[in-house]
Amino acid sequence: MADHRLGFESFEEEPSPTTLDVEGELPDWLTGTLLRNGPGLFDVGGEAVTHWFDGLALLRRFRFDDGIEYSSRFLRSEAYLAAARGELAFREFGTNPSRSLLDRVREITGETMTDNASVTVRHRDGEFRAVTETSRELAFDPEELTTLGERRDAIDATGTLAHDHYDPLQEERVGLGIDFGSRSGYLVYRDPDDGPTEEIARIGADEPAYMHSFALTDHYVVLTEHPFTVPPTRLLGDRPFIENFRWYPERETRFLVVDRRTGETVAAPSVPPFFTFHHVDAYERASQLVLDLVAFEDHSFVESLALANLRSRSPAIPGGELRRYRIDLDAETASDETLFSGPIEFPTIHYAEANTHPYRYCYGVGKEPGSFNDRLHKVDVEHATTETWDEEGLHPGEALFVPDPGGEEEDDGVLLSVALDVEEERSCVLVLDAAGFEEVARAYLPDALPFDFHGAFYPDGERPIPSMS
Description:
Elements: E1 18-20, E2 22-24, E3 32-41, E4 43-44, E5 47-48, E6 56-64, E7 68-74, H1 78-84, H2 101-108, E8 120-124, E9 127-131, E10 136-140, E11 147-152, E12 159-160, E13 165-167, E14 172-179, E15 185-192, E16 198-204, E17 215-216, E18 220-225, E19 228-229, E20 246-247, E21 253-259, E22 265-267, E23 270-271, E24 279-285, E25 288-295, H3 300-304, H4 307-310, E26 321-328, E27 333-340, E28 345-348, H5 351-354, E29 361-366, E30 375-380, E31 385-390, E32 394-396, E33 400-403, E34 413-421, E35 426-433, E36 438-444, E37 454-459
Antiparallel strand pairs: 1-7, 2-36, 3-6, 3-37, 4-5, 6-7, 8-9, 9-10, 10-11, 12-14, 13-14, 14-15, 15-16, 17-18, 18-21, 19-20, 21-22, 21-23, 24-25, 25-26, 26-27, 28-29, 29-30, 30-31, 32-34, 33-34, 34-35, 35-36
């Protein structure tokens, strides 16, 4: 029987839209499209890329309407087209082809960064886009999954975070850019629905930290600056992008709190060092901010996602915990507490309603030591309780919450997860009742898909607001 390693094999098919057989019963209100993104091709020119993040982007579409229709298609990026010829054309997160010094200089100015947009999807300026951690976004048709062309973020930074936030009350997207050029540091910006992109703040940093996400409240942007940093000149070396960063355990982690209206950094409290990929939620309580995230002891989680480790029978992957920080803006101090010791990753909430507000439920992916993601968790942060759903041989991915339009409670809705069933050697779509945290339906795909990263569900007849950051 296969094991989790099947999810790290290259995918070579681009199946036509296929109607899946559904086991169980889908809610009659569940109509819309689940779009997911992640690596699909790991082997290029007879060799494998080095890191999970470096696989070539494969878009996946699941249409819910009295059933489930599935299709997938590789994003036609420059990186993918070169890989199809057996070449690695760009320096990726953890993989580094041979490049000239001129190419390396042009890269840190943002000119020749990779367009392998494999992290997630977003809806922007009336179209759907695949995004990664550079400023090169690729628009695509949400039904045919055909690539429509490159779009560039209109900000002056080397790269941008794939995880941004949409604020429906202020009708604007808030994002973060990282600049490794002559003005290295962080660029906080807004992208209003009815106007051009505007800079909120530029915060200088001689050694910018690696950041994957940030937090948003009604009035503030919160950057978590852990001590995993790089002097921009080191990026001129001939190493993969992330190998230029260094972890400094003697340094602390800082929270940079930026006023969304003025751009002023109003507080920068420090805490003992930790690393994070994903923030969960943040909100305001008088002069205090509450910030929840998945915390790791150090940067070793990044290294553990090397493809060689993930393709081993028992991968060694550190576990993250769900942690809450309370930031006192007046005293510029921060304290922490553990909400769930984990392991947990890929955290999601009822994003449309709970983001920037107090919330009760966080959903995430967990695992046993020496295994790859093999369970889902539902954490009640108000009552400090956790429910777990698992099934032997099943490896679920990120679980997105889709609210029941007629629901009254925060967890009235379903969770959608794409899982690998190693006994069937196929992937399946899982539909869990979020309130009871139990399966109500599943539908098997004809093939085993590689493990993906992030996505969003877009209900029919509604404005396309993301189901996560």
